[in-house]
Design brief:
single chain; alpha/beta; Rossmann fold; 2 domains; 6-stranded mixed β-sheet; 12 strands; binds nicotinamide-adenine-dinucleotide
């Protein structure tokens, strides 16, 4: 890979390679854009097949965080980290060593949990740096963000219904949900309480039976999921479920769920959905509740403030849907414009930022 041309084309500010043989640490931290504030994004730990895959993943994910934070109205930029390791071999030393690298960036990057990293790992990082969120409650953490992600997703579904159907009335509305894990199960509860009829698919039968018993959800197979005569599809499991194979068979009018990277090819598949008059709710806008939750640890966690910021997701989506209609563009393109407009307006400021002192003042050593 031509590293500098890759970074230049994606717009990254800084990429840091961390290597500490004493703790078996091999990690990459990517800071995409700090115009709005310090770059916040989780640390993903995976046994990547090769270093190039790890690099591509961290570059792509960190850029996504810039757009996500910008649309969520947060004073944060986009960053992400990957640790190349087998999840079975993670150790306290590895995370403490990683924490020292995070500290060395002086607050330009703030980390959190992601795939295969948890609160205990963040607590170990916290021993070396204050620039970490998602730590345990005793250290000022906010706990599992899944509930807030589900709440934001629920608000996003309501915004999409208002736009597509002209009203928010769940009675008689059929919603199919792929994935009833940490976020999906809370979402099922919110939707059931409002009177929606649920259709659920998961690879874990136990979770499906639980949703059937609790919320009278109908259990369906993955194949049925993409052919069902329903109103809304909520992807809440994995990425890329919206692709050239699945989109032509969809019969829903709205797609709104919490999964990351729902479109296999963002430009091509968002346009396909637009042409089919299926309202796509951009994933990084609707699923920002968890990010809003951890971001509030930085300024001092306040549940009321978090809830009002999560509720704002609906207003942002309304504005994105309206803009997409007005300009005849996909909602994916409109979300990108929304984020870029906010970043540009701040980048035009003439006074130098001092975000290290103001925005992260609460993270005291
Ligand atoms: P999770 O692992 O708790 O739940 C995912 C569920 O999907 C599991 O029940 C799993 O069995 C199921 N699943 C996996 N593959 C499947 C398949 N092929 N078909 C059907 N079901 C399948 O994860 P989560 O925390 O609930 O996150 C769900 C999605 O939302 C992920 O894409 C995640 O990246 C994204 N997300 C989560 C948060 C959060 O706060 N947890 C925030 C933003 C985005």
């Amino acid at each position: 890979m031509k590293l500098f041309s890759q970074v230049e084309s994606m717009g990254h500010e800084q990429v840091v390679f961390c290597h500490d043989p004493s703790s078996n640490l091999k990690a990459i931290i990517a800071i995409h854009d700090t115009t709005l504030g310090p770059a916040l994004g989780g640390t993903r730990l995976l046994p990547y097949d090769n270093e190039e895959d790890a690099l591509i993943d961290v570059l792509r994910l960190s850029r996504g965080m810039t757009y996500k934070a910008a649309c969520a109205g947060l004073s944060l930029g986009g960053g992400k980290a990957v640790i190349i390791a087998d999840p079975k071999q993670k150790t306290e030393q590895m995370f403490r060593s990683f924490g020292r690298y995070v500290q060395s960036l002086g607050g330009r990057y703030i980390t959190a949990e992601d795939m295969n990293t948890n609160v205990t790992n963040m607590d170990h990082i916290r021993l070396e740096t204050k620039y970490v969120t998602g730590v345990s409650a005793g250290l000022g953490g906010s706990g599992d963000p899944s509930f807030m992600t589900a709440k934001g997703t629920f608000f996003g579904i309501q915004a999409a219904m208002k736009h597509r159907f002209g009203k928010v009335d769940f009675n008689g509305i059929k919603i199919c949900i792929q994935g009833v894990g940490a976020v999906g199960k809370h979402l099922c509860k919110f939707l059931h309480e409002k009177g929606a009829k649920l259709f659920v698919s998961d690879i874990d039968d136990k979770k499906l039976v639980e949703m059937h018993n609790l919320y009278n959800a109908t259990i369906i197979s993955e194949r049925e999921l993409f052919n069902l005569e329903a109103d809304i599809y909520a992807p809440c499991a994995r990425g890329a479920t919206l692709n050239s194979n699945t989109i032509p068979s969809l019969k829903v009018k709205i797609i709104a769920g919490c999964a990351n990277n729902q479109l296999e090819d963002e430009d091509k598949h968002s346009k396909m959905l637009k042409d089919l008059k299926i309202l796509y709710t951009p994933d990084y806008v609707i699923n920002a509740g968890g990010l809003i939750n951890v971001a509030n640890e930085i300024t001092g966690y306040n549940l009321e403030k978090v809830e009002s910021e999560v509720a704002r997701i609906a207003l942002t989506l309304e504005s994105i849907f309206t803009d997409a209609d007005k300009h005849g563009i996909s909602t994916h393109e409109a979300a990108k414009r929304f984020a870029e407009k906010r970043i540009k307006s701040v980048s035009n400021l003439k006074v130098m930022s001092q975000f290290d002192n103001s925005a992260i003042g609460n993270l005291k050593k």
